[in-house]
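Notes to self after the call with IL:
- keep both proteins in one doc
- input above output, always
- annotate only the second one for now

Protein 1:
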Amino acid sequence: MRCPWCGHPEDRVVDSREAQEGQVTRRRRECLACGRRFTTYERVEDVLPQVVKKDGRREPFDRRKIVDGLQRACQKRPVSREQIDELVSAVERRVQELGEREVASHVVGEAVMEKLRALDPVAYVRFASVYRAFTDVGEFMSELEGLARGPGRGST
């Protein structure tokens, strides 16, 4: 690690502590040349795949886009921000565990809907109506009937 003050490449670690609930290691360092101290943060690098959209475009996996969509679906519902974050983290883990460089957007969308269906059925229907782009009331009613039949027996 180069010293931000003098650029010297060698330092010593004075103190190490966990931060952000164990997700980050905070290190206090001292430059061996100028003696000034600085802080570095170490975290595991997330390797997330590219998302292949329906039209063939490729975009980096964007957690923020999923959170935004879920917040809209969960407006005025008894779903906390923590629950949304946990849901998105579970989907993110699932995508990472696939071990692929690219993943189709429908894989991400279906994973989100599966988790959301278990969390809040009304928010699930809201999200599904946008995600699946229902073209008529019949498609919407079909989804509601599948939801009413119970888990695993709907159209998802």
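Protein 2 (the one to annotate):
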Amino acid sequence: MEPRLNLFTNEVASKFMKRFANASMVIHQAIPTTLHELVSLRVSQINGCGWCVDMHTKEAAAAGETAVRLSLVAVWRETTVFNEAERAALALAEEGTRLADAHEGVSDDTWEHVRKHFDENQIAGLVSLVGLVNAANRFAVIVHQRGGSYEPGMAPPS
């Protein structure tokens, strides 16, 4: 199936996507690349965004992430391969993505766990990342941007 709209070549969409990508550069300064990609991957898995899962899996691998850890992101709670800080970030990503599933959104327990492992700027980066990736997933899913053809470095980071 072809995309309904090419977000990279359409005049309005490409202008917007460039600005959207520029916003993500601030996040990259606050969060290590591998954590950035793990969180982005988990959000994209939850939202069923094939393009973003493809992109974040390949970008994470290019940044040195292992195949084992990439394979286990979807079931991170049931593994031993993620450290406590990563687990806190992944919990924040899940709860921040599944807002409709819980009346309180991100739980106080998850927030406290995040605060134990990250400083305020890193937390701001994580919160911004979760919001940004959720938005990016919606763009790609709405226009049927399919995964499979992404190459590392192909698109600006999100």
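Annotation: Residues 120-142 form the longest helix (23 residues). The radius of gyration is 15 Å.
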